Automatic annotation (TrEMBL):
UniProt-annotated stretches for the region Disordered: 190-210
Protein name, entry field: Polymerase/histidinol phosphatase N-terminal domain-containing protein
Location of the Polymerase/histidinol phosphatase N-terminal domain: 30-102
Domain of life: Bacteria
Pfam families for this protein: PHP (PF02811)
């Protein structure tokens, strides 16, 4: 069980500590979109450098997603067999960036899989791609869905969408719009982040490139994707991604947002983001809380979004600021709620110019769902 201390928040409803009846689990943070030297346009970004940096900023997991077309689909004998692809503490997912003429997607897997098969069908019809993807038992995610290299396949092929790509928050507005469209259509689609970092800082005998400056603006953890995993394991990370138990923050030092609901009216919060239940037509109590490195003297703006539109905005501050609100999900139609948090971005000394690019976007949640068909 997860026990939260529910503090009174800026005039909102007062709470006493309550048990969150969600089973055991642990929050893990990482980056789901990173390129190493096995992507040919990358520079000064060896796998060992990526891993050591991730450990230094206390990441729990990582997925190095090199472009598969740079190695003709043979990711298994490049990124994954690189002698540096190992860690005694950082959980390393198996994956790649599926790079096609119709856009890009990332693959996430707890185990090695035959990526060559997915690469070989990249130009085929969606129905054939879907069959291969299903047989490989992988998680496929739509990358940077708007703008350059936007995802041009059916969204029925993917379980998640990259709603926050790189430190530059402003370029993600259209991605958020696409996400809301997909949610409104009945897809329980996980929103996740990814730095899409390609370039590291030169060390030892390495020489700067024309893109070296980017490492000060965008690198590992800008943004950071948090997953609520049942265990500290690769399979639990993928499972959390599959089921939407995910939040995204501006960097590893920024607080994450946690989002819960008491759907049964028992006084215990028995749902969290990613969960789905049948609406009773009665009021449901929700809770939003910021956890981690909050800035106690700074005011945060919490916006609750219902079915793609703003339901309400709250101003909160404190060490572990929390608000609760009540709303009635539609009795017959689908309803989803998600949360965004704006305020001052925590300093990220290792990537010192990233905060300005993130603006005021601190964190976002995945939805809580009512009346969504899990067989959609």
């Amino acid at each position: 069980m997860l026990l939260l201390n529910l503090n009174q928040a800026n005039g909102q409803e007062s709470n006493t500590p309550k048990t969150i009846d969600l089973g055991s689990g642990v929050w893990l943070k990482g980056d789901l979109h990173v390129h190493s030297r096995h992507s040919t346009e990358s520079s000064n970004n060896s796998i060992s450098k990526i891993i050591n940096f991730s450990k230094a900023v206390k990441m729990d997991y990582l997925c190095i997603t090199d472009h598969d077309n740079h190695v003709n689909g043979d990711v298994a004998h490049h990124t994954w067999t690189d002698p540096e692809f190992k860690s005694d503490s950082l959980l390393l997912l198996y994956g790649a960036e599926w790079t096609t003429t119709r856009g890009h997607g990332n693959v996430f897997s707890a185990n090695p899989y035959d990526h060559q098969r997915l690469f070989d069908v990249r130009d085929q019809r969606d129905v054939n791609i879907g069959k291969v993807k299903k047989s490989l038992n992988i998680h496929l995610s739509a990358n940077h869905p708007s703008g350059k290299d936007n995802f041009g396949f059916s969204y029925d092929l993917v379980q998640s969408i990259e709603v926050w790509n790189s430190a530059m928050w402003t370029k993600n507005a259209n991605a958020i719009m696409i996400w809301d469209d997909m949610l409104s259509s009945g897809r329980m689609m996980t929103g996740r982040g990814g730095s899409d970092a390609h370039h590291g800082t030169p060390t030892a005998s390495e020489k700067p490139s024309e893109n070296t400056y980017q490492a000060e603006y965008n690198y590992i953890g800008t943004p950071t994707t948090w997953v609520y995993a049942k265990t500290r394991s690769l399979s639990a990370i993928v499972d959390a991604l599959n089921h939407g138990r995910v939040a995204v923050s501006a960097n590893p030092y920024s607080p994450r947002v946690e989002f819960y609901a008491d759907a049964t009216g028992t006084g215990k919060f028995d749902m969290m983001m990613g969960d789905n239940t049948v609406s009773t037509g009665k009021p449901v109590k929700f809770q939003v809380q910021l956890m981690g490195n909050t800035l106690p003297n700074e005011m945060y703006s919490i916006t609750v979004i219902k079915n793609g539109k703003t339901l309400n905005t709250y101003q909160i501050k404190g060490d572990a600021p929390v608000i609760t609100f009540t709303d009635i999900p539609d009795l017959k139609g689908r309803t989803y709620y998600r949360v965004t948090v704006e305020g001052k971005i925590n300093d990220y000394p290792q990537v010192p110019k990233s905060m300005a690019l993130s603006g005021k976007m601190v964190s976002l949640s995945n939805p809580i769902y009512f009346n969504f068909d899990p067989k959609f």
